[in-house]
Design a protein that fits this description.
336 residues; alpha+beta; BirA Bifunctional Protein, domain 2; 2 domains; seven-stranded mixed β-sheet; two-stranded antiparallel ribbon; 9 strands; elongated; binds adenosine-5'-[phenylalaninyl-phosphate]
Length: 336
């Protein structure tokens, strides 16, 4: 076998190896102390002097090529073997100590929304949603707030800049808009709560934000009365804040309910004192609202309520300033 044939055979054999044993066998056959390249080197001694130089340099080149190819084949097999050995052991315990381990949690507002929808769910309410970007029909008109009503003043609402002639759009100022969205698509009996963000250009202070959350409640069915509303609010307050709280209604006005009320919850403190705290608005659904969504007010009646979720969360957890809820300071958030 001349050197060219030897190189050709070596490369062919090497390209077919698939295991470490085969690579080793190759090494012994070609590169070993009794291997083919050693034998080819022995040929040098018996060659005529004038051929030695040429044969020697060719032999060195062939040796080098075979050695390099062998090294590459060995490394390649090692990598593949490494890849299969490095499978992830999912039973291995974590390497982070508990001191370094800071699991995140839902934001306190989300936790409160979850607790409220879970509680109202147990009272038979399902959860509804509506868009935050609303038209005037759903935020005002269908809720019995006519065009000239002061509540629609651009200074008291976030209207969007629109091309001239386009219908006005706004960031909804109350979740009551979802009452209309639901009644447009669902026939009574209706029993829903609708949590979500609302927007008002209120001056920010300890109890006011320009973006906050409300949860709306709506029940429409036959024979629904104010007693159902009062019972619902009282049961909710006792289940959420504790059996010792009391509730009271104060006459109020909302264009979409008649009669309307604001409701307060009385909290008793350890030192024997107590405090009435306003939680939200409510009332019996105005017949005009039912008519707008083609529900016969002679046949159906309903009640609605709306609560501020930040105020509820603050009351429940003793938080004094609403701004803490939006500053995203981890020292505050990690307490909940
Ligand atoms: C309403 O928004 C009515 N839609 C509630 C309602 C629903 C009445 C259904 C009747 C039937 P009001 O504007 O009072 O009502 O707001 C309700 C609650 O939102 C307040 O009691 C308060 O808890 C909260 N709230 C109002 N403004 C802010 C504000 N700027 N920041 C934080 N919470 C606020």
């Amino acid at each position: 076998m001349n050197l060219d044939e030897l190189l050709e055979h070596a490369q062919k054999e090497l390209s077919a190896v698939t295991s470490a044993d085969q690579v080793e066998a190759f090494r012994i056959k070609y590169l070993g102390t009794k291997g083919l390249l050693k034998a080819a080197g022995d040929q040098l001694k018996i060659l005529p002097n004038d051929q030695k130089r040429q044969y020697g340099s060719k032999l060195n080149a062939v040796k080098q090529t075979v050695q390099n190819s062998y090294d590459q084949a060995k490394a390649g097999l090692g990598q593949r073997a490494g890849a299969t050995d490095a499978r992830i052991d999912i039973t291995e315990p974590g390497r982070i100590s508990f001191d370094d381990y800071h699991p995140g949690s839902l934001h306190i507002i989300h936790q409160t929304i979850d607790a409220l929808t879970e509680l109202f769910g147990r009272m038979g309410f399902s959860v509804a949603q509506g868009p935050e970007l609303e038209d005037e029909f759903h935020n005002f008109e269908a809720l019995n707030v006519p065009r000239q009503h002061p509540a629609r003043d651009p200074l008291d609402n976030f209207y969007l800049q629109r091309p001239s002639g386009a219908a006005p759009l706004m960031l909804r100022s109350q979740t009551s808009s979802v009452q209309i969205r639901v009644l447009e698509s669902q026939k009574p009996p209706v029993r829903i709560v609708a949590p979500g963000r609302v927007y008002r250009p209120d001056t920010v202070d300890a109890t006011h934000s320009f973006m906050f959350h409300q949860i709306e409640g709506l029940v429409v069915d036959q024979h629904i009365t104010m007693v159902d509303l009062k019972t619902c609010i009282d049961q909710f307050a006792k289940a959420f804040f504790g059996a010792d709280v009391e509730t009271r209604f104060r006459p109020s006005f909302f264009p979409f309910t008649e009669p309307s009320a604001e409701f307060d919850v009385r909290f008793h403190y350890a030192d024997g004192t107590s405090k009435w705290v306003e939680l939200g608005g409510c009332g019996m659904v105005d017949p005009n609202v039912l008519q707008t969504v083609h529900i016969d007010p002679e046949q159906y009646t309903g009640f609605a309520f709306g609560l501020g979720i930040e105020r509820i969360a603050m009351r429940k957890h003793g938080i004094e300033d609403i701004r803490l809820l939006f500053e995203n300071d981890v020292r505050f958030l990690s307490q909940f």
